[in-house]
Amino acid sequence: MSASPARIAAFDILLRVETQDAYAVELLHSEKVSRLSAADRNLAMQLVMGVLRWQSRLDSAIAEIASGKHSVNKLDPEVRLSLRLAIFQLRFLERIPESAAVNESVELVKRARKRSAVPFVNAVLRKIARGVEPAIPSAFSTAEELAQWFSQPQWLVEGWLKQFGIEKTRLICEANQATPQTTLRLNVGAESANTVVAELAGEGVEVEAGALLTSALRVVSGDVTRTAAFRERRVAIQDEASQLVAALVGKGERILDCCAAPGGKTSAIALNNPESEIIAVELYPQRAQMMQRFITAPNVQVITADAIDLPVSGSFDRVLADVPCSGTGTLARNPEIKWKLQQSDIDDLHKRQVAILNAALDRIGPNGRVVYSTCSLEERENVGAVDEALRGRTGFRLLDCRSLLEELKTSGSLTWQDIESLTDGPNLRTLQGVHPCDGFFAAVIEKI
């Protein structure tokens, strides 16, 4: 007997995520996975994302049985992952036969050349009781309770509780454990939108209107990545909060995107500014090359450079500083982040973010604007970075995003009715679970 292609693919991806600096989403869209049948691709994705989302709950189940020299952290990665895969199937996937979950995980251990661990894996899995996970508690009162139930690092939950309160934090944790709906950005003018929708329907992809923006579509069913519209860049996968940040940039004759990869916001800005000069900067050459293939707008120049030391002269009317961040607003899509992230990482990111924002402020012309944004929920990366960059500076003011959102609503770009819920003080603030999108932050700073 050998393990199924879906479980082999899932195991190999999880092993790379566990032992290398790899990300599950990228690996799940690799050529190796694309060669699988549709059913195997779906199962592989379900297994990978499920194991990463519920990792601490799965490890707790292992720890209940394994002890001493077999404690979870002391297990070889291959053994630990085979156990997680089996327990996830036993506890969270009712349609998977128990024999398949157990036997194929044992086969994965053999395939990984860890035959000496086979008796241990067999013994643990035979003791794991199959059953439906208990119903979610009606209320939570502490960060520890939320972290344990929703399989989140407690230190992150504690920070969210301080910022957002118990109810919003619960919604964030719930959203982190759910499969997010795929959202598209139309990369064509409004006059072509209906044509694209009809084409997608003809290729088996059903969509509905976006929840926040007229530029967005939500995928109801079907695989958009296999359509002509996706291949030809007429639609792109992009979360609505990310699209909203790009919309806040507005219009200008000369626009700079400081940290542009993978290019979604750059493309959205270019669509709104077809006659403008747009410079998109990316630090890493490989990502810059990918951007050049991704972006079809002729008025975008992609440059490989550090945003802190740009080889570009002159000032800009608009600058987007969508800085590198922890990504805690995207944990439903990138669940491995929560297990890799440390508090020290937040401090290191904060320093880099402040440096990039300072460089962006130095590049802005009179009456120009900098949009500083992250897909993080962490206060130190958001308000903390903006406050530090503006401290001691004169000639700048923080704009109230409410007025900018009202302008987008008046123009017909923004369809979300409750603008107040999209703001926190003067800044844009979306929260996964509270809003139908990822968690994003944006501050708009104007040079007086």
Describe the protein's architecture and organization:
With 448 residues, the chain is of the alpha/beta class. It has 4 domains: 123 residues, Orthogonal Bundle (N-utilizing Substance Protein B Homolog, Chain A); 33 residues, no CATH class; 54 residues, Sun protein, domain 3 (Alpha-Beta Plaits), CATH 3.30.70.1170; 209 residues, Rossmann fold (3-Layer(aba) Sandwich), CATH 3.40.50. 46% of the residues lie in helices and 15% in strands. It is built from 19 helices and 13 strands. The strands form 2 sheets. Strands 5, 6, 7, 8, 9, 10, 11, 12 and 13 form a 9-stranded mixed sheet that branches. Helix 1 runs parallel beside helix 4 and helix 1 crosses helix 6. The longest helix has 23 residues. The termini are far apart.
